[in-house]
């Protein structure tokens, strides 16, 4: 187990805390070499995807083809709440949705080593009356509504996104999902009250999966709308009905999206009832859970964060509420406040 954990965490903790300084995280020569191998430049645009149930964060970058390609998948040390969107300040929910992060939302001096603010609530969430603030991706292994990556993990992610923003990208998109949005996973959650919201998220997920291009995100009709041009320009009221859409969609993409929708319907019809989980509190990547079980919360906290911030609710993290039935199948792989948010 120890050997397996070491391999899984090689991108986050293998180099140790001695590599962390008090200055803003910088791209390492190793990371730059990895980018070069994948035909990516440090200044090329970046996109981030987050998956709660799998406790993983993906960093994508534009490569020589002009499309996004997966640069690296990072194991997440801790997230809190349960599957579903954040709606209320203090509910411990980590948000789900589409966010855009600019340079001013990066914090190199976070009390959790380094962080970037997701910008929750976004324009749609604000219009719907959702409350909360300071929802971050940050270091350490403690969450009360944030996504905690460890100091080493967030340091590398911070350096990557900062370099892309400095290279001319005005802001980068963060797509936060409850799980990898395959047809099978959607079917296994078909009885969840959040399913209508998740089906909307899946439209953006699929658009990116099929094109490897950042989806254009609009908000109207109380929902996200993707890759759509509207008569009269972008909708200004997220709660009002969407204006008439102009037909600009790629026919090949529309065919793929339609086929995926049919695949979801077939999967749902084949599942009699969806999985039910007892709510504990969030999740933790299996590699970190193994460390927690082996070393205990205090020793683990000291090994992944220079500030030795306590692991949040370690008993809940060990419980692993998603360890029952097979809920997800991994897809083929091609920030700062102490409030309760």
Automatic annotation (TrEMBL):
The keyword Cell division does not apply. It comes from Rhizobium daejeonense. It holds the Pfam family YkuD. Residues 46-177 form the L,D-TPase catalytic domain. One of its GO terms (biological process) is cell wall organization. Pathway: Cell wall biogenesis; peptidoglycan biosynthesis. Keywords: Cell shape, Cell wall biogenesis/degradation, Peptidoglycan synthesis, Transferase. The active site is at 138 (proton donor/acceptor), 146 (nucleophile). One of its GO terms (molecular function) is transferase activity. InterPro entries: LD_TPept_cat_dom, Transpep_catalytic_dom. Residues 320-341 are annotated as: Disordered. Residues 332-341 have a biased composition (Basic and acidic residues). This is Murein L,D-transpeptidase. The keyword Translocase does not apply. Belongs to the YkuD family.
């Amino acid at each position: 187990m120890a050997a397996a954990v070491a391999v899984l965490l090689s991108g986050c903790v293998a180099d140790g805390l001695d590599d962390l300084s008090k200055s803003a995280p910088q791209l390492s020569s190793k990371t730059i070499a990895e980018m070069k191998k994948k035909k990516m430049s440090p200044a090329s645009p970046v996109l981030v995807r987050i998956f709660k149930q799998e406790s993983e964060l993906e960093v994508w970058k534009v490569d020589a083809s002009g499309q996004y390609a997966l640069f690296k998948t990072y194991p997440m040390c801790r997230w809190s709440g349960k599957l579903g969107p954040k709606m209320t300040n203090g509910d411990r929910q980590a948000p789900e949705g589409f966010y855009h992060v600019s340079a001013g939302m990066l914090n190199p001096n976070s009390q959790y080593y380094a962080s970037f603010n997701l910008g929750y609530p976004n324009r749609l969430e604000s219009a719907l009356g959702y409350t909360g603030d300071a929802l971050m991706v940050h270091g350490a292994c403690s969450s009360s509504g944030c996504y905690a990556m460890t100091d080493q993990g967030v340091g590398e992610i911070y350096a990557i996104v900062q370099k892309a923003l400095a290279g001319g990208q005005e802001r980068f998109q963060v797509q936060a999902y409850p799980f990898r949005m395959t047809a099978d996973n959607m079917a296994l959650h078909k009885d969840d009250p959040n399913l209508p919201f998740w089906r909307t998220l899946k439209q953006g997920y699929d658009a990116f999966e099929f094109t490897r291009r950042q989806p254009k995100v609009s908000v109207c009709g109380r929902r996200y709308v993707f890759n759509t041009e509207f008569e009269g320009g972008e909708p200004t009221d997220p709660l009002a009905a969407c204006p008439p859409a102009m037909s600009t969609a790629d026919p090949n993409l529309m065919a793929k999206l339609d086929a995926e929708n049919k695949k979801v319907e077939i999967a749902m019809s084949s599942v009699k009832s969806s999985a039910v989980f007892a709510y504990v509190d969030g999740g933790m990547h299996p590699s970190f859970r193994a460390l927690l079980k082996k070393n205990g919360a205090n020793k683990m906290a000291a090994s992944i964060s220079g500030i030795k911030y306590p692991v949040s609710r370690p008993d809940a993290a060990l419980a692993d509420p998603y360890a029952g039935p097979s809920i997800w199948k991994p897809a083929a792989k091609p920030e700062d406040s102490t409030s309760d948010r």
